[in-house]
UniProtKB/TrEMBL annotation:
<protein>
    <recommendedName>
        <fullName>2-methoxy-6-polyprenyl-1,4-benzoquinol methylase, mitochondrial</fullName>
        <ecNumber>2.1.1.201</ecNumber>
    </recommendedName>
</protein>
<dbReference type="InterPro" id="IPR004033">
    <property type="entry name" value="UbiE/COQ5_MeTrFase"/>
</dbReference>
<dbReference type="InterPro" id="IPR023576">
    <property type="entry name" value="UbiE/COQ5_MeTrFase_CS"/>
</dbReference>
<keyword id="KW-0496">Mitochondrion</keyword>
<dbReference type="GO" id="GO:0031314">
    <property type="term" value="C:extrinsic component of mitochondrial inner membrane"/>
</dbReference>
<comment type="similarity">
    <text>Belongs to the class I-like SAM-binding methyltransferase superfamily. MenG/UbiE family.</text>
</comment>
<dbReference type="GO" id="GO:0110142">
    <property type="term" value="C:ubiquinone biosynthesis complex"/>
</dbReference>
<feature type="binding site">
    <location>
        <begin position="190"/>
        <end position="191"/>
    </location>
    <ligand>
        <name>S-adenosyl-L-methionine</name>
    </ligand>
</feature>
<feature type="binding site">
    <location>
        <position position="162"/>
    </location>
    <ligand>
        <name>S-adenosyl-L-methionine</name>
    </ligand>
</feature>
<feature type="binding site">
    <location>
        <position position="108"/>
    </location>
    <ligand>
        <name>S-adenosyl-L-methionine</name>
    </ligand>
</feature>
<dbReference type="GO" id="GO:0032259">
    <property type="term" value="P:methylation"/>
</dbReference>
<dbReference type="GO" id="GO:0008425">
    <property type="term" value="F:2-methoxy-6-polyprenyl-1,4-benzoquinol methyltransferase activity"/>
</dbReference>
<keyword id="KW-0808">Transferase</keyword>
<comment type="subunit">
    <text>Component of a multi-subunit COQ enzyme complex, composed of at least COQ3, COQ4, COQ5, COQ6, COQ7 and COQ9. Interacts with PYURF; the interaction is direct, stabilizes COQ5 protein and associates PYURF with COQ enzyme complex.</text>
</comment>
<keyword id="KW-0999">Mitochondrion inner membrane</keyword>
<keyword id="KW-0949">S-adenosyl-L-methionine</keyword>
<keyword id="KW-0472">Membrane</keyword>
Length: 318
């Protein structure tokens, strides 16, 4: 680089020299200002280049702004399909009575509520089977048994962790409306620095959250740290569409329709513009699989759903 510049300077004279010298950037000009002795790195916020610090603030602002309309927008944008993707995540998880789940970037609680319903339904079925196998039960015994089974969670528990208080606030209100009182906790925390001890959870989930995180590698390492040996990592995230025709239609829908919907339903064009841009910036299936492996997970696999619009990645801490 330096050699090329001096060669170019060698061919100049008079005013040309002066102009060339003035146009030369000093070597420190492309290093961003220092903060705590470290150069500030750039990252992306959708298609925009921003500092890492700015990204965190901007992402926070997006979800603070959309929190109240988040669920309505999810249903409208995906025509309700996000519900099926989330159901599939639960089927893959196949939790058992006693599972301790950590749902990171859990927002308004969709994964947590599905988990609680799954466990309750499973326990109810088991108790019904047991009940049928008992002979000579009184009416009182049967009534008591049914009452217990309806709210039975066993030792299962889910912690919803999210960086955004507004999203959690909406989630807590939803939990009240849906009647989820037990087996559920809400924690404000950053996926990159989880406020939990090592080896604590059986399952870690993150649904449509990881692409918003500034350092995906750090979030993955944290997932690995808080899982018990044998624990499972599951991530549901937008991915790369593998059919060129669907890809064109999807692009058209994403860039032409979603921001307009965002404006009409939530009065917020920009946040939904970010949403579609952030999806395009997220690594494709294979690349993300390698990142999960780099964090120490084993038996990493993924399944693309709806032509790759989303994918579920899974890995184990062994
Ligand atoms: C698209 S929402 C997904 C919410 C929920 N998991 C769902 O599937 O409906 C993304 C969530 O990620 C959260 N988030 C973004 N950055 C985060 C971080 N560094 N740590 C924890 N949560 C984060 C946001 O606050 C937001 O609630």
């Amino acid at each position: 680089m330096v050699v090329c510049r001096s060669r170019a300077l060698g061919q100049l004279s008079g005013r040309g020299w002066k102009r060339a010298l003035l146009s030369l950037r000093p070597p420190w000009a492309w290093v961003r200002p220092l903060s705590n002795g470290k150069p500030k790195a750039d990252t992306h916020f959708g298609f925009e280049t921003v500092s890492e610090e700015e990204k965190g603030d901007k992402v926070y602002h997006v979800f603070e702004s959309v929190a109240k309309k988040y669920d309505v927008m999810n249903d409208s944008m995906s025509l309700g399909i996000h519900r099926l993707w989330k159901d599939l995540l639960l089927q893959k998880m196949h939790p058992f009575s006693g599972t301790k789940l950590l749902d990171v970037a859990g927002g308004t609680g969709d994964i947590a509520f599905r988990f609680l319903n799954y466990i309750k339904a499973q326990n109810q079925r088991r108790q019904q089977r047991e009940l049928k196998s008992h002979q000579n039960l009184s009416f009182g015994d049967i009534a008591k048994w049914y009452q217990n089974s309806r709210c039975s969670l066993g030792e299962s528990h889910v912690v919803v962790c999210d960086i955004n208080k507004e999203m959690l606030k909406v989630g807590k209100q939803k939990a009240q409306t849906l009647g989820h009182k037990k087996g559920l906790a809400w924690v404000v925390g950053d996926a990159e620095e989880l406020p939990f001890d090592d080896d604590k959870f059986d399952v870690y989930t993150i649904a449509f959250g990881i692409r918003n995180v500034t350092h995906i590698d750090r979030a993955l390492q944290e997932a690995h740290r808080v899982l018990k040996p044998g624990g499972r990592f599951l991530c549901l995230e937008f991915s790369q569409v593998n059919n060129p025709i669907i890809s064109r239609l999807y692009d058209l829908y994403s860039f032409q329709v979603i921001p307009v919907m965002g404006e009409v339903i939530a009065g917020d064009w920009k946040s939904y513009q970010y949403l579609v841009e952030s999806i395009r910036r997220f690594p494709p299936q294979e690349e993300f699989k390698e990142m999960i492996e780099d964090a120490g997970f084993q038996k990493v696999a993924y399944e693309s759903l709806t032509s790759g619009i989303v994918a579920i990645h899974s890995g184990f801490k062994l």
